[in-house]
Amino acid sequence: MTSAAEQRAPAGGRAAAPSTNGARISPVPGPPVWPGAPTPLGARFRVGPDGVAGTNFALWAAGARAVRLCLFDADGRETRVPLTELTHEIWHGFVPGVGPGQRYGYRVDGRWDPWTGARWNPAKLLLDPYARAVDGEFTLPAEVYGHVRDWPEQHAADTVRDERDSAPYVPKGVVVHDDDDWSDDRRPKTPWADSVIYELHVRGFTKLHPGIPEELRGTYAGLAHPAAIEHLVELGVTAVELLPVHQFAHEDHLLRRGLANYWGYNSVGYFAPHAAYAASGTAGQQVGEFKRMVRALHAAGIEVILDVVYNHTAEAGELGPTLSLKGIDNRAYYRLQDDARRYADYTGCGNTLHVVRPQVLRLITDSLRYWVTEMGVDGFRFDLAAALARSMHDVDMLSPFLAVIAQDPVLRRVKLIAEPWDIGSGGYQVGAFPPLWAEWNDRYRDAVRDFWRHALPDVREMGYRLSGSSDLYAWGGRRPYASVNFVTAHDGFTLRDLVSYERKHNEDNGEDNRDGTDDNRSWNCGAEGETADAEVRAVRRRQLRNLLTTLLLSTGVPMLVAGDEFGRTQGGNNNAYCQDNATGWLDWSLLDEPGWRALFALTSRLIALRHRHPVLRRRAFFAGRAQAPDGLRDLAWFTARGAEMTEGDWYAPAATLGMYLSGRDIPGRDERGAQVVDDSFLAVLHAGAEPTGFVLPGPPWAEGYEVVVDTSREDQSAPDGTAHPAGAELTVPGRSVLLLRVLRGPGTG
């Protein structure tokens, strides 16, 4: 018995493409179209021949049979304009009289042959991949799918072409006027070693902020508001890393459950700032609003880093919607399996962009350069960067993507951060990215979490992570700042939840608590979730101080997550990607509580300490050997007995670790060529529950020590200041960090 899909297909089993697109034909006559130019791609308003203003449209669509530009007026009426000029696989035309604010899209005609990966369907209005503004939201009704989404036989649904017009149901691109030269902007250009990164969500950071006018909350303008910037400046961070702000779409399974993609890792427009984050409008105003936000942050000395998702798009797999690239040239833009109906999925999101292909590389690098040169951003964090580094199949550090970035005169000068893994075979690549790149160091995260829950078998891993992860990055000219150190990120528990929950509590996501990782390496300090137990609460606050202090004293680039500095909680949800509500938003009222305000004060003081002391933000790896006749080394490790650690000590179970940082032996010189000299410090980390004695090393290491930070103290508003002679046995409280400044004397250098 044959299926309905087979009954509609010609010999060979392929659904036929009709001679017309099946959509409503617009009665509106089209404007004249001049040849225009194939570059730049996208829609560019300019003055054309004879001084006539208009817009040049250019779309790469190599395998298409025809391309129609679709213009929409304020009432949604569509005018179709054939683009007949074809140069180097780019369809183009100049339309006189079309200016900024014009909404548009494309219909691309070609073969419907899913078995070979061909999925052209001119009934579907497609978003220009180079659109610099997008008006409207993707709601994903059945009409926006290139195939019949609800076909009874789902195994064959993707082979049956849907001939309904999608134009009424999808957003449109918007022509934008280029009116900025950035001459009044001053980029902070913070050196990597001096950076402190603060990961935040534009909407979540501003949505409940009492100092931001209500009409600006949740927007770029809200983040640019003085009240928002004041917090960042007081905290002392040097860069904000924004969760995705490229135009994104919500997944169908979320919309069906009444939820939405809150984090935004589902991009569909790589040039357009996400329209829902704009307070000023979505007919191009979002572009100017984003630029003003960047300027305001720059004026405060804060860089802007974008979390970008070039590994996949919102079009998902063969059963996903047809929104842009899938309808322009599916086979060229996406990695397909040997069975070309199916997509190669190294991302877990249904598809993977085929970054080896020149036109895909061009799309990504054009997008990156645009955000740097025209939108003013200072760097990028690449989601699932290993997927971008794959050649035909395997991850390859000589891949076209990495090679293109390395030689690009714009991109090689900005901050580049890799999330150095994907879900494919061989996708875990921590420590493998080439020079120029920094990496999210999840081995740092895991080691610090395990140390403070007293779960490390020994202290070898902790020693590497505290001192810059030389085992991962001391090759090829890389520096300690290749390691972006973090204890928490957007994905996972908040810092407060890390010490309050041992199990994830993701029921509100509607996936029966199956989503999110089970490997949290957390400790709830004796009670699951919020509790009135004063003793448990005190231990949790101390653990928070320990984790933040460890992060900000470690060599490398620290990354904080917005709200961790004042006790933000997600109620145990470790995958709040779909929680666009109080779970995902920052609760600024916590700062009115003395305990959480004190945590903020400690975090700010630690960041200020880091900024003041170059020994805490080294630009080169430690040598670990004597630099002078007195035997003093730039880095030394001590046991609680006050003796330098032996090989055996590294392999022995231990809850206490002493790290000596010499300020005398900092490699490099300042801007005037003088040797960099700083104070020396001794950090004592003790994860045990009970107090322990620690013998303070004597000469040549020090004549005495002064306590600068003691995380056992609730009140962290000022340094301890207590002085202790070298050789004395210091009592280290249970579960605490002591940072001691070396008091110099004869023989200490």
Question: Could you explain how this protein is built, in words?
Answer:
The radius of gyration is 28 Å and the shape is elongated. A hairpin with a 2-residue loop joins strand 5 and strand 6. The chain has an 8-stranded parallel beta barrel. Mean pLDDT is 93; it is low at 1-27. With 749 residues, it is of the alpha/beta class. Helix content is 20%, strand content 19%. Helix 11 crosses helix 12 and helix 15 (534-553) packs parallel to helix 16 (594-612). The protein is built from 17 helices and 29 strands.
Primary descriptors:
749 residues, alpha/beta, eight-stranded parallel β-barrel, six-stranded antiparallel sheet, 17 helices
Q: Can you summarize this structure?
A:
By secondary structure, the chain is α/β, with parallel strands linked by helices.
Write the layout of secondary structure elements.
Blueprint: H1 4-8, E1 42-47, E2 53-60, E3 66-72, E4 78-83, E5 85-87, E6 90-96, E7 103-109, E8 112-113, E9 118-119, E10 134-135, E11 172-174, E12 197-200, H2 202-206, H3 220-224, H4 226-235, E13 239-242, E14 246-248, H5 252-256, E15 267-273, H6 285-299, E16 303-308, H7 325-333, H8 358-373, E17 379-382, H9 385-388, H10 400-407, E18 415-418, E19 437-441, H11 442-452, H12 460-466, H13 470-473, E20 483-485, H14 495-498, H15 534-553, E21 557-561, H16 594-612, E22 635-638, H17 647-651, E23 656-661, E24 681-686, E25 692-695, E26 704-710, E27 723-725, E28 729-732, E29 736-743
Parallel strand pairs: 12-13, 12-21, 13-16, 16-17, 17-18, 18-19, 19-20, 20-21
Antiparallel strand pairs: 1-2, 2-6, 3-4, 3-7, 5-6, 7-11, 8-9, 10-11, 14-15, 22-23, 23-24, 24-29, 25-28, 26-27, 26-29
